[in-house]
């Protein structure tokens, strides 16, 4: 018994020591380590990685949003594409989405600038206090996850309290504000397509409050000396309604499809869109919130920016359950109702342990 307790104490003190550096994974790399510390070692995954080179069955859909509102017949085609992708993959990429390329590039540079600024300046912002408008740390589930991920992250609320940008660091403040506005506009367009794909009024998901909040996550994945031993992000699904992800050219994002890991190859100028747990819940499993991960890489840093349509932990009494219009005698509700804050709190407490938080809410 004592040895088990000693092991737990040792692991906890290792994690605490890493946390107290306030320098994250980048701090380890900057210190010149050439071995991945054991607290980052992951168990091998049981699922195969598929080679999807040249295999069109295993390439997630790329949907072209050009002229979305100008041609009714094209729009119906887009609705059909979004429906198919959301029911089967839970993921798709969008091109001609209306966000200028220079804005996408500046957003990536903004994240890079933040993480590569003087470490003493950055340490001032390192915190685990999630009530702050800007939170920088490494591994939100540092004290609960089975193994740590090879990445550092900042999280900030881009909506509804974008009125307080002075809480954002100067090195990325302007672009965060601008990018958030672009993503909110795109998100509303996507919600219209998703609503129509469910056979509902185009404004249905927006009117439910699915676009009320937007949380931005800037991820920095340093080059890893032993990528086979760790992961950039553990297998998980997202605790939101919808995610819009900007990734750089390095790649590493994989989606679990038919028990195989499939690479989501970066497409220049594209954004990755995926269904979150809360959208699967309210659509009663019509749309799939699919597990995904990020592998570690010898090459780096990899930069990505994930925007979560979700009010996060912000208090709200609004309950979300399966949409009544989608239910019938043959399709009864599969989930109990929850508030967004309760779902997010349960997800965060559980950490990225490789299991789905949705099972907790299944009837």
What labels describe this entry?
9 helices, Jelly Rolls, 363 residues, 30% helix, 8-stranded mixed β-sheet, 19% strand
Structure explained in plain terms:
With 363 residues, this protein is of the alpha+beta class. It has a single domain (2-361), classed as Sandwich (Jelly Rolls), CATH 2.60.120.330. It is 30% helix and 19% strand. It contains 9 helices and 13 strands. The protein has helices at 2-21, 24-30, 72-88, 101-115, 119-123, 173-197, 204-207, 277-282, 340-350, and strands spanning 48-49, 62-64, 91-95, 134-137, 152-159, 214-221, 231-236, 242-247, 253-257, 260-263, 271-275, 292-295, 302-309. The longest helix is centred in the middle third of the chain and has 25 residues, at 173-197.
End-to-end separation in angstroms reads: 38 Å
CATH architecture: Sandwich
Q: Roughly what fraction of the amino acids lie in strands?
A: 15-25%
Based on CA atoms alone, the radius of gyration comes out at 20 Å
- CATH superfamily caption: B-lactam Antibiotic, Isopenicillin N Synthase, Chain
Structural class: alpha+beta
Q: Number of folding domains?
A: 1
Individual helix count: 9
Number of strands: 13
**H-E order:** HHEEHEHHEEHHEEEEEEHEEH
What is the mean pLDDT? 92
Q: Name the poorly predicted regions.
A: none
Mass-distribution shape:
globular
């Amino acid at each position: 018994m004592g040895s088990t307790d000693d092991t737990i104490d040792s692991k906890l003190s290792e994690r605490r020591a890493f946390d107290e550096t306030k320098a994250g994974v980048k701090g380890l790399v900057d210190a010149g380590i050439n071995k991945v510390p054991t607290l980052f070692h992951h168990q091998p995954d049981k699922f195969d990685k598929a080679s999807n080179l040249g295999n069109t069955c295993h390439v997630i859909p790329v949907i072209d949003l050009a002229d979305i509102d100008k041609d009714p017949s094209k729009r119906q085609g887009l609705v059909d594409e979004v429906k198919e992708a959301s029911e089967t993959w839970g993921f798709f990429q969008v091109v001609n989405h209306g966000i200028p390329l220079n804005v996408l590039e500046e957003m990536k540079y903004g994240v890079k600038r933040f993480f590569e600024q003087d470490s003493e300046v950055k340490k001032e912002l390192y915190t685990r206090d999630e009530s702050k408008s800007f939170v920088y740390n490494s591994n939100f589930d540092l004290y609960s996850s089975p193994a740590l991920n090879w990445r550092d992250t900042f999280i900030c609320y881009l909506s509804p309290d974008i009125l307080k940008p002075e809480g954002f660091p100067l090195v990325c403040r302007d672009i965060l504000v601008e990018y958030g506005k672009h993503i909110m506009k795109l998100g509303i367009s996507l919600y219209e397509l998703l609503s129509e794909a469910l056979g509902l009024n185009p404004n249905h998901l927006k009117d439910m409050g699915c676009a009320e909040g937007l949380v931005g996550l800037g991820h920095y994945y340093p080059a890893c000396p032993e990528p086979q031993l760790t992961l950039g992000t553990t297998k998980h699904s997202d605790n939101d309604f919808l995610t819009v992800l900007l990734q750089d050219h390095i790649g590493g994002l994989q989606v679990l499809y038919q028990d195989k890991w499939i690479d989501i190859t970066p497409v220049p100028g594209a954004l990755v869109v995926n269904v979150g747990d809360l959208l699967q819940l309210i659509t009663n499993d019509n749309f799939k919130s699919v597990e995904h991960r990020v592998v570690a890489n010898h090459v780096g840093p990899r930069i990505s920016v994930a925007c979560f349509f979700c009010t996060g932990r912000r208090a709200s009494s609004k309950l979300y359950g399966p949409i009544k219009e989608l239910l019938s005698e043959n399709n009864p509700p599969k989930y109990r109702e929850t508030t967004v804050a309760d779902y997010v709190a349960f997800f965060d407490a559980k950490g990225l342990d490789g299991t789905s938080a949705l099972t907790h809410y299944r009837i």
